[in-house]
Amino acid sequence: MKTILITGCSSGYGLETARHFHDAGWTVMATMRTPRPDVLPRSDRMRVIALDVTDASSIASALDEAGPIDVLVNNAGVGLIGTLEGASLLKAREVFETNTFGVMATVQAILPQFRARRSGAIVNITSTVAMAPFPMASIYTASKTAVVGFSESLAHELAAFDIAIKLVEPGYGPTTRFAANSDLSLEDAIHPAYAAFAEPIIAGFSAPGLTTAPSDVAEAVWEAVHDTTGRFRFPAGPDAVALSHAR
């Protein structure tokens, strides 16, 4: 029986991935900043653990509580849409604390046990914004692109200890709490001078073409965890797959 620890399981991709692995017989450590045990099945193979990826002591406590882990999935993240000129750098730092430094800190904390066993897998959830430019998402894109570069470089270090690292790249997920994870309203995030530029982009959010569902991400994480070919990138969702083929 394998054990997986997933960050950001209160909703969206993390919640569905926790359910997916549990249904497949895995033991799941579903972590959340504010634990909500009611959203997941009651089972001796499902544990809900408090974890704030921006807090080193919280990370250490969660790993102690979880015990030995076979797979780490870094899913916790916050969204930020808006123009750069309308953004505060304080908010940008908050996005990086969760989306980028939170990933680095959680990986760093789990590596000693993976290295000692010479086994383990890490799956970092990024985004298709790191594949192709997307308007009004410069700060969010920067935070996710940094994780891509971090993971690509780290893969060389981890290979020396038989530890795998993979990227899962979701597309646009309108059913997730992406926008709700930010405490900044869209109106406040757009500089008035960019109103005409932003209007058609915002309208497009409500009428997307291909999109990504949480189940697409759960399946991509499953595929990444079980891959034995050395593949590094796993697009999740029909829009992400189409974009990856177009690159």
Descriptive keywords:
7 strands, 8 helices, 45% helix, Rossmann fold, single chain, 247 residues, alpha/beta, 7-stranded parallel β-sheet, globular
Describe the structure.
The protein is an alpha/beta fold and 247 residues long. The protein has a single domain, classed as 3-Layer(aba) Sandwich (Rossmann fold), CATH 3.40.50. It has helices at 12-23, 56-66, 89-117, 138-159, 186-189, 195-205, 214-226, 238-246, and strands at residues 3-6, 27-32, 46-50, 71-74, 121-125, 164-170, 233-236. Strands 3-2-1-4-5-6-7 form a 7-stranded parallel β-sheet, sandwiched between helices. Helix 3 runs parallel beside helix 4 (138-159). The model has no long low-confidence stretch (mean pLDDT 93).
In short:
It is built from eight helices and seven strands; from the N terminus they run E-H-E-E-H-E-H-E-H-E-H-H-H-E-H.
* CATH superfamily annotation: NAD(P)-binding Rossmann-like Domain
Rounded to the nearest angstrom, the distance between the terminal CA atoms is 38 Å
Widest β-sheet, arrangement of strands: 3-2-1-4-5-6-7
H/E element order = EHEEHEHEHEHHHEH
CATH architect. name: 3-Layer(aba) Sandwich
* Count of distinct structural domains: 1
CATH class: Alpha Beta
User: Which outline best applies?
Assistant: globular
Which structural class fits the helix and strand makeup? alpha/beta
How many whole angstroms does the radius of gyration measure? 18 Å
Strand content: 5-15%
Q: State the helical fraction.
A: 40-55%
The count of strands amounts to: 7
